[in-house]
Amino acid sequence: MLLETVNLTKKFGGLTAVDDVSFSVEKGKINAIIGPNGAGKSTFFNLVSGYYPPTSGQVFFKGEEITRLPSNKIARLGIARTFQTTNLFERATVLDNIIVGNRLRTQSNLWDAILRTPRLKREEQKCLDKAYEVLDFVNLTNHAHSVVENLTQEEKKRVAFALALATEPELVFLDEPAAGVNPDETEGLAELMKKMVDHGITVCLIEHKMQMIMSIAENIMVLNFGKKIAEGTPEDIMNDEEVIKAYLGGERHAEVK
Amino acid sequence: MSRLLLNKRFALSGLLLLVLVLPLITSNAYMIRILILTFIWTIAVYGLNLLAGYTGYLSLAHAGFFALGAYTLAILTVTVGLSYWLAFILTLVFTSIVGALIGMIALRTREHFFAIYTLCVGYIIYLIIYNWEGMTGGVRGFIGIPSPGSIGPLEFNSQISNYYLVLFFLVLTIVVIYRIVHSLQGRTFMAIRNSEDLAKTIGISTTKNKLIAFILSTFFAGLAGALFASFTRFIGPEISNITMTFDFLVYLLIGGIGTLSGPVIGTFIIVWISQELQFLQDYRMLVFGPILVILIIFAPRGISGFIIDWNLKRKAKKQQIESMKDMENNQEVKEG
């Protein structure tokens, strides 16, 4: 168990977006969170990655409590995330977007910059090497010098993955990685996620594309109206009464009739 | 690519040589005076560019910090009676400390709230200078500020020596800014400008880095202010006025916000045009207004940004043509 939430709750005024959710992300697997629109999936991500603090409950990463840490400190511990909208700097090249990804593993400061110290040069080279390494990982080396706005949606997602990987994470949260990407390309992204797991990086994703989730995820949690309604393997989830009800809005025998 | 770099280097050295020998070939004291003032504005605009252009936080208190530098130098040299260079260094330290304190509060806001907040800070600095007559001379202004003290054999009594002194600080500013922008620190600033949320998730402490950018911007504003005070020897509260901030901002926008050469280009062009349009007096604004509007519409990143984008496009086109040629060649080989 790499990351664990205990009774995590987030209230926005009268609305409980995430309600008493206890979930654990299993190490070395592809974990997934699914649920209808507005079920609280993104809010859950935002709580875990420190984007905003929970109303109550706790988050543990490798047994250490990270509940109220700011997101930049959480990133340093080894948790990366991507956004639904990739948030990349569209007018810059792919490489320029990614170099800064390894910044959190460097020490050089303003004085190093002004005095051009050997440490700065060394660390800049390190960031550059890291950028090429992760670009190679996501198969975008030939696009290193392309401007991001000229890339396809799928390539942009890969760049976002690469940026997350440049932070040298142990756990990566992917918020709807396949949104706006066609089915063929979705397969490529799924392959990429498997590749991450093969390289020892645990993945946790939010996704709407059921087929993709059921084929790659090993551990799934289903949220509905902020509450966890099911957790388990794809088979468990597919046969769960409450999940079917949440998705189809009726009882199971309704489809038999 | 290397030819372009060589051309750039050649052009830069030529430009530097020109400004170095200019006082020797012209005896036009008025022109030298305008040039010195332009250098000083440029230093201030560089400070603004680092914060607004590279970090994405538009501060409207810039003239306030410029005036803070000018008045601190005046008070330290005249009222307190410190030696010039000690006062000069203390001025830079003091402006940066005030910048840090204000930055800590101001940076809790974002976007237009930040602009409004700093607008108020600038106005408060103006009001303090205007009303604290005992210290600042109020509306009468502050008279009798000494020119820069001599360093060893170097004296700065004449206009020409002041020209070289200010030029030295301008070049120093450009070198420092260049190094910051082209470093991991600069990339960190740009990551914040691009998306603060994304910057945080890749482990960047936005609070710390925004504060660094803010302090740097006040540092350069203070530097420009101190140089201004000792060059003009007389300062009034109008230098902290909001119109001054907007002057800086217009220089930056026309030159190119978030570009390295923008501050120099914008400041020189606008100062030069407004000199040429002196005969129009206050109606000059009727010329500037439309120019600014047209520029914002067609070249939102100013003159410098326009040239950079144009070059990029040309390069991309060239690459496309080359790759198409490659493909044709390959086909010919196959067919042959």
Offer a quick outline of the entry:
Chain A: This is Amino acid/amide ABC transporter ATP-binding protein 1, HAAT family. Chain A is an alpha/beta fold. Chain A is 38% helix and 23% strand.
Report on this model:
The complex is a heterodimer of chains A (about 260) and B (about 325). Chain A has helices at about 40-50, 70-75, 95-100, 110-115, 120-135, 155-165, 185-200, 210-215, 235-240, 240-250; strands at about 5-10, 15-25, 30-35, 55-60, 65, 80, 170-175, 200-205, 220-225, 225-230. With about 260 residues, chain A is α/β, with parallel strands linked by helices. Chain A has 2 domains: about 1-80 and about 170-255, Rossmann fold; about 85-165, no CATH class. In chain A, a hairpin with a 2-residue loop joins strand 1 (about 5-10) and strand 2. Chain B has about 325 residues and is mostly helical. Chain B has 2 domains: about 30-300, Orthogonal Bundle (ABC transporter involved in vitamin B12 uptake, BtuC), CATH 1.10.3470; about 305-335. Chain B has 14 helices and 2 strands; from the N terminus they run ααααααβααααβαααα. The longest helix of chain B has about 35 residues, at about 300-335. The chains are: A alpha/beta (about 260), B mainly alpha (about 325). The interface between A and B is medium-sized, with 39 and 27 residues. Chain B: This is Amino acid/amide ABC transporter membrane protein 2, HAAT family. Chain B: InterPro entries: ABC_transp_permease (IPR001851), LivM-like (IPR043428). Chain B: It comes from Piscibacillus halophilus. Chain B: It is a multi-pass membrane protein.
Please state roughly what percent of the residues of chain A sit in beta strands, choosing from under 5%, 5-15%, 15-25%, 25-35%, 35-45% or over 45%.
15-25%
Portion in helices of chain B: over 70%
What is the CATH first-level class name of the largest domain in chain A? Alpha Beta
Sheet with the most strands of chain A? 6 strands, mixed
Name of the CATH class of the largest domain in chain B = Mainly Alpha
How is the largest sheet of chain B built, in terms of strand order? 1-2
Unreliable stretches of chain A, pLDDT < 50, 5 or more residues?
none
The poorly predicted ranges of chain B are none
Number of structurally distinct domains of chain A: 2
